[in-house]
TrEMBL record:
Membrane topology, as annotated: Multi-pass membrane protein
Pathway annotation from the record: Glycan metabolism; osmoregulated periplasmic glucan (OPG) biosynthesis
Species this chain originates from: Acetobacter peroxydans
Alphabetized InterPro entries for the sequence: Glyco_trans_2-like (IPR001173), Glycosyltr_2/OpgH_subfam (IPR050321), Nucleotide-diphossugar_trans (IPR029044)
Cell location: Cell inner membrane
Cell inner membrane recorded as keyword: yes
Cell membrane as UniProt keyword: yes
Domain of life assignment: Bacteria
GO terms, molecular function: hexosyltransferase activity
PANTHER family: CELLULOSE SYNTHASE CATALYTIC SUBUNIT A [UDP-FORMING], GLUCANS BIOSYNTHESIS GLUCOSYLTRANSFERASE H
Keywords: Cell inner membrane, Cell membrane, Glycosyltransferase, Membrane, Transferase, Transmembrane, Transmembrane helix
Protein's name according to its UniProt entry: Glucans biosynthesis glucosyltransferase H
Transmembrane segments: 51-70, 90-116, 407-432, 462-484, 496-519, 575-597
Pfam family, one: Glyco_trans_2_3
Length: 722
């Protein structure tokens, strides 16, 4: 029998997937109230003091904003009459100050919760004997044109860590591929087979590639729920760079079993693996400042928490019954499929009566950071579009007000950038107006003393200092919390090095902030003008952006900074010096981005003991497993001749891979089903090619992927002469 076309009598039939267990996932009607299935509006796991907690955090932020509004009014001094620019300045200040005031009050709550060892709940313990599991959980790893070696290394680390808990039988791992690159697709299949062979996990590790990439990641997960969700009580969503320890997964699954009204538990993923200076800054900030922020929002969100799309466990039945996403009216970028689906899925589940909790004190949840500001900008462009799209989801009937607040905060995360820019430009215009406009000292009414319109510099200084204190206070609170945690303090290099790291991150981050402001502003304007973000693969390597690319991308920011600085100097030298922090970041944007994108500079900081995090100075067991898996894959690649990078050549070079590929193909097209034009054209081209060389020359990437999605196309490829 031909080794390429089937299995021998001695071989066990190949199965990449378990038997299907369908689960209905209806599309939700945003204009009608949902069926709560007997659950009340307030979940049983909601803290009893939740109303007081929210009043303390939000009420304090409102009072701080009211005081700030009064102080900015004193700065503007309306003795000479309130100008239009003055009103704009005050309105913008109030909106922006409310934003940082809420972050401050939430961080104060988080600091108290952190130092008092809170951040848990639902019966979860940090340590101690692991609970025994009675129900099944699926780990879902959606991937889209990602490097297969890193994806499989992460899964192998998770698998081994679960195996060490003794609870592996309760978990299955699914690789849910939406990969469109045919070469990466076949590499994924080869890596999947190698992962199964190295773990013996034929009964626990599965692979499925969608041949129709509908609705991106949400559609990928939704398709799994509809086909296999009925067999699993819970599902854990992962990203391609996610790693979670077996102990953490077991404790989360046990918490779901103990609390039948909980629909989702979100962990706090810690950023690890950063090598460039930018990634190390993100890693340090997330590790040191992140807990204060996360503990705070967990404290006052209660059972109305949020979902970040990964490193969370979800009750499958709750997700299926409430989180089927509809398309919003209109065309992209505001209409169509909901991009930032995680916020909406959490809101709809809570609308259906399910509790959504965040447990920031549960260790063992990790992810990676984009290596450069450029990579963050690409990701943020997509997130920005998704968050702005939530404007159309806000009117949904039955949403909890905290769920609406999550969406408003998500929208504000991007809208505040253009607001800061307008605020900055308004300040320049006010100074310009004061410089050139002839003041009216007496006005229309007779008075003994003249009106002296002015901006009070002393009051301005007080407002500036107060605003900076509110802005930087969460970092100081985080540093104090670090000092009170001996293990974390040692892991960050000690009190002195940690302080220097906070100072370094604050200074460099402050210079990067105006660049990020302009990037996000351009993203908002692009979306408002109707441009869709598309779907791009996230780059996860360690930087290496050519200098000329940086010059092309960031030269406009340098020019803007020079123009802004010139204008400020012409208006008033004092205004120029006030704006120096913003101007420096913009004028030196090119060398700043080049510096922060450098892996060598990042390593220099590590050698100096700066921007260290405990996960690199004393790696937890699951990260050691990840490093071992990556080393094993790398060593195997050196010892064994690697497959050709081209998918057609790879299938011809490995008979076992070819058989597995054929076994994983979808059923043949039935009469009356939609015709794939790329597949039709590709098969014709393949039939006319005559040789493999000609086939590689004439097939486009889409046609090659379509051809490899049919048994006819694969058999033709396998039998073409070289």
């Amino acid at each position: 029998m031909d080794a390429m076309s089937g299995t021998t009598a001695q071989e066990t039939p190949f199965h990449a997937l378990p038997p299907e267990a369908p689960l209905a996932m209806p599309v939700q009607d945003l204009h009608a109230l949902p069926d709560r299935e007997g659950r009340g509006r307030r979940p049983a796991t909601s803290p009893h003091s939740i109303v007081l907690r929210r009043l303390a955090v939000i009420g304090s932020a409102v009072l701080m904003t009211a005081y700030g509004a009064w102080r900015i009014h004193k700065v503007m001094d309306d003795a000479g009459g309130i100008s239009t620019l003055g009103v704009i300045m005050q309105v913008l200040f109030v909106a922006l100050f409310m934003w940082i005031a809420l972050a401050f009050t939430s961080s104060v709550a988080g600091f108290c919760s952190l130092v008092l060892r809170g951040g848990l709940g639902l019966g979860i313990r940090r340590s101690g004997p692991l609970p025994r599991l009675e129900r099944r959980t699926a780990l879902l790893l959606p991937t889209y044109n990602e490097p297969p070696e890193r994806v499989m290394a992460g899964l192998k680390a998770i698998y081994t860590s679960l195996e060490q808990t003794g609870e592996l039988a309760a978990f299955d791992l699914f690789i849910l591929s939406d990969t469109t690159n045919p070469d990466v697709w076949v590499q994924e299949e080869a890596a999947f087979l190698a992962l199964r062979a190295s773990t013996g996990g034929d009964q626990h590790i599965f692979y499925r590639r969608r041949h129709a990439n509908i609705e991106r990641k949400a559609g990928n997960v939704g398709e799994w729920v509809r086909r296999f969700g009925g067999a699993y009580d819970h599902m854990v969503t992962l990203d391609a760079d996610s790693v979670m320890s077996g102990e953490t997964l077991v404790r989360m699954a046990a918490a779901m079993e103990r609390n039948p009204g909980v629909g989702l538990i979100q962990t706090l993923p810690v950023i690890v693996g950063g090598t460039t200076l930018f990634a190390r800054m993100q890693q340090f900030a997330g590790r040191v400042y992140g807990p204060v922020i996360a503990y705070g929002i967990a404290w006052w969100h209660g059972s109305e928490g949020n979902y970040w799309g990964h490193n969370a466990i979800i009750r499958t039945r709750a997700f299926a019954s409430q989180a089927g996403l509809p398309h919003v009216p209109g065309k992209p970028p505001f209409g169509g499929h909901i991009l930032s689906h995680d916020f909406v899925e959490a809101a709809l589940m809570r609308r259906g009566g399910w509790a959504i909790h965040m447990i920031p004190a549960l260790d063992g949840s990790y992810e990676e950071s984009p290596p450069t500001l450029t990579d963050v900008a690409i990701r943020d462009r997509r997130w920005c579009q998704g968050n702005l799209q939530h404007v159309k989801v806000l009117p949904t009937r039955g949403l909890h007000w905290i769920s609406r607040m999550h969406m408003v905060v998500g929208i504000g995360a991007y809208v505040t950038s253009p607001l800061w820019l307008v605020f900055l430009l308004t300040g320049i215009l006010i100074s310009l107006q004061a410089h050139f406009q002839r003041p009216e000292y007496f006005g229309d009414t007779k008075t003994l003393y003249p009106h002296w319109p002015h901006v009070d510099p002393v009051q301005a200084k007080y407002v500036f200092i107060g605003t900076m204190l509110v802005l930087l206070a969460p970092k100081m609170l985080a540093y104090i919390a670090l000092l009170l945690d001996p293990a974390a303090r040692r892991g960050c290099g000690g009190a002195v090095r940690a302080a220097l790291s906070v100072l370094t991150e604050t200074l460099i981050g402050g210079l990067v902030a105006p660049i990020a402001m302009l990037i996000q502003t351009s993203g908002v304007l692009s979306i408002l003008s109707g441009h869709d973000s598309g779907w791009n693969t996230q780059r996860r390597d360690d930087g290496g952006i050519p200098l000329m690319d940086i010059v092309r991308q960031y030269g406009r920011f340098t020019l803007f900074g020079l123009a802004l600085g010139t204008g400020a100097w012409v208006v008033s030298p004092s205004l120029f010096f006030w704006m120096t922090p913003v101007l420096l970041g913009l004028v030196f944007s090119i060398p700043l981005v080049a510096l922060t994108s450098s892996r060598a500079v990042g390593l220099d900081f590590r050698r100096a003991g700066l921007l260290l995090v405990p996960e690199e100075t004393a790696p937890p067991p699951v990260l050691n497993l990840l490093a071992a898996a990556e080393s094993s894959i790398e060593a195997q690649a050196k010892a064994v001749p690697s497959l050709p990078g081209d998918s057609l050549k790879a299938l011809r070079a490995d008979a076992r891979l070819a058989r597995a590929h054929l076994a994983m193909l979808p059923p043949p097209r039935k009469a009356g089903e939609a015709i794939n034009p790329d597949q039709l054209v590709g098969l014709v081209k393949l039939g006319e090619a005559g040789t493999l060389t000609n086939a590689l020359r004439v097939l486009s990437p889409k046609e090659k992927a379509a051809v490899l999605g049919t048994a006819q196309g694969v058999e033709t490829v396998l039998h073409l002469p070289d």
